[in-house]
Amino acid sequence: MTAPVRTHPRHPALAAADPRLAALVAAEEQLQADTLRLIPSENYVSAAVLEASGTVLQNKYSEGYPGKRYYEGQQIIDQVEALAAERATSLFRMDHANVQPYSGSPANLAVYLAFLKPGDTVLGMSLPMGGHLTHGWGVSATGTWFRGVQYGVRRDTGRVDLDEVRDLARAERPRLIFCGGTAVPRTVDFAGFAEIAREVGAVLVADVAHIAGLIAGGAHPSPAPYADVVSTTTHKTLRGPRGAMLLSRAEHARAIDRAVFPGLQGGPHNQTTAAIAVALGEAAGPDFRAYAHQVVTNARTLGEELASRGFDLVSGGTDNHLLLIDLTSRGVPGKTAAKALDRAGIVVNHNTVPYDPRKPFDPSGIRIGTPALTSRGVPASEMAAVAQWITQAVEAARTGDEPAIAKVRAEVKELMDGYPAPGLPVG
Length: 427
Known about the structure:
The protein is α/β, with parallel strands linked by helices. It has two domains: 52-283, 3-Layer(aba) Sandwich (Aspartate Aminotransferase, domain 2), CATH 3.40.640; 298-417, Aspartate Aminotransferase, domain 1, CATH 3.90.1150.10. Helix content is 44%, strand content 13%. It has a seven-stranded mixed sheet with strand order 4-10-9-8-7-5-6, sandwiched between helices. The protein has a four-stranded antiparallel sheet with strand order 11-12-15-14, with helices on one face. The longest helix is centred in the last third of the chain and has 23 residues, at 286-308.
């Protein structure tokens, strides 16, 4: 169905050149304004980050690094990239930063290229247990070109068992160990992983894509004292553009840089680099620190409210921005629940849970998080209402009660109208 043709004065050139696409952009702006976005990997960027993403820096090709480019005319671009890297090393307290990776998966691939040869062993968290595809999972290139060995979580606690990790590391002797993941609701024990990596002579990589903003804001411990390399996206809790960074100790800087370029990429996306610089500047301020702590407060409060309504939370709750919910006891598959919640204006994703008997595309759980709603200024006092709406929508998914879903949708929009989203021209 063709979207209604409505535009906004912020996009006059787009509206004139391509009214159909302009209408789609406007419709997405309205959708983001009206819905309660609980996908933990999504957020709202500031107007400044959004502006930087669309500057004339888009017009430049800049293969190489500051001071060592393969194109002329880089006097300004070099300063932009240097600024982003300087802010990254300062904020995360690492020796070196490469801000060129296009996204999180290419960043992790660069780590493999920097340290491993095809067939080498990598130890990472199992995808169904909360890890990421690029941590050596079989369907990923990282599990095809390298020998992936996976650790998981305990059945009784839903938490990583470092004794299991140590036993696996001693038996398999990986050259690379990943800690962190995409559905990990608890604090990552960077010190514990570092001890294991040292014992077996492995490089430790902390993948903090989900929690980078919490680390920057002091709401989660930092991997800086422990990890050889820190890999992260620049969106999610960090509230930057869709990009990535690799931070490392000084001795690994050359290997990381050569792996990113020329190893995997050509010219960096300079407009994204500029937006990363803006986001890092914002993350260094006191307002962002308050934001990061509020993300955790909101998540914990929402988890407590859901648990009080009978929901089964993996690991029993959360230490960060993310909740993983097993819906088995509710009699509703995760995908069915996620689609019903979407119709109710509550955006989540269906997700596997540890030891899930269902298939990955139709799993038992949903994954939710609080970064985006916190960016809108929604306080912890509203989490009871959010939990109640989730309860009503999941029950309506079980019974097929569409009027109940429509009622929740109207109530969600009313709340969202009271908390305008940053960076959006509508509210």
